[in-house]
Amino acid sequence: MNIILFGPPGVGKGTQAKLLVEEFRCSHISTGDLLREAVKNQTPLGVKAKSFMDGGNLVPDEIVIGLIEEVLKPEDIRRNFILDGFPRTLPQAKALDALFERLGISLNGVISVQVDNEEIIRRLDQRRLCRNCGAIYTVAQLAGSRQCPKCGGELYQRDDDKPDTVRRRLEVYQQQTSPLIDYYRQTKRLTKVDGMHQVAYVHKLILDALYRDRTSI
Q1: Residue 200's domain is classified under what CATH number?
Q2: Is 13 among the residues known to form the active site?
Q3: Is residue 136 part of a domain?
Q4: Active-site annotation holds for 102
Q5: 194: containing domain
Q6: Based on the structure, what is the number of domains in the chain?
Q7: Where does residue 42 fall: left (phi above 0), alpha (psi -120 to 50 degrees), or beta otherwise?
Q8: pLDDT tens-digit series, residues 138-177
Q9: What gap in Å lies between CA 79 and CA 156, rounded to an integer?
Q10: Within 90-149, where are the H helices?
């Protein structure tokens, strides 16, 4: 099953993607992770992407499409994957459809996770990451600790998780991604899921939608 998880930053796409990976034994392609890895390794694409990411702006399409194409080259990945965090604009969606056609990929559906903006800002402001192992926590889980419970590494807040930057990210997202709703709805691939619920219930809603759509094919 090939799925796109769609929605603004902070709606829980990464968490839901991990649960779906367990369900379908598929590859998780997170464009955020791909970009951060490229930035960390200071690749040519990573250096270009960093200035956009730090300012809360979208990374140019050609950078992300190039990274996705590289990841999708192996045949086993092309047959069973979750794409998380892309596309975010109508030109990206059309470029992605062209890439899928070129690689012979059939897309089963687009799941749009819906969460209100103030809840997104609250969630991201409370998120902390480990510099060493990459684990993600909320402030409430840490009970005041500044060290990772798993490995003892330093915990930090990403610059693009701070409230002012999140507001800017959401403004950019809403301006540039609203046409995607109509695009995927018109091509009968869009399913909206309420992401305001607990993680397990959101996962159930996603599974219900996917199995329902697969049964109807």
Answers
A1: 3.40.50.300
A2: yes
A3: no
A4: no
A5: 3-115+177-216
A6: 1
A7: left
A8: 999 998 899 999 999 999 999 999 999 999 989 988 888 8
A9: 36
A10: 90-103, 117-125, 139-142
Indicate which residue of 122, 158, 168, 192 is catalytic. Answer: 158
CA dist 132 and 147 (Å) reads 10
Active-site option among 36, 122, 127, 185: 127
> Considering the chain, what percentage of its residues have pLDDT values greater than 70?
98
pLDDT surpasses 90 at 59: no
Structure tokens at 54: 């730090």
Q: Annotated catalytic, 79?
A: no
Please say whether the beta carbons of 133 and 149 come within 8 A: no
Rounded to whole angstroms, the Cα distance separating 69 from 105 reads 12
Residue 132 resides in a domain: no
Give which of 110, 84, 89 is closest to 10, Cα–Cα. 84
Asked if the structure places residue 95 within a domain, the reply is yes
Q: Under 8 Å CB-to-CB from 217, ≥6 apart: which residues?
A: 108
Has 88 been annotated as catalytic? yes
Q: Across the beta sheet with 127-130, what order do the strands follow?
A: 136-138, 127-130, 155-156
Instruction: Report the alpha-carbon distance of residue 159 to residue 54 in Å, rounded.
Output: 7
Q: CB atoms < 10 A from the CB of 161, how many?
A: 20
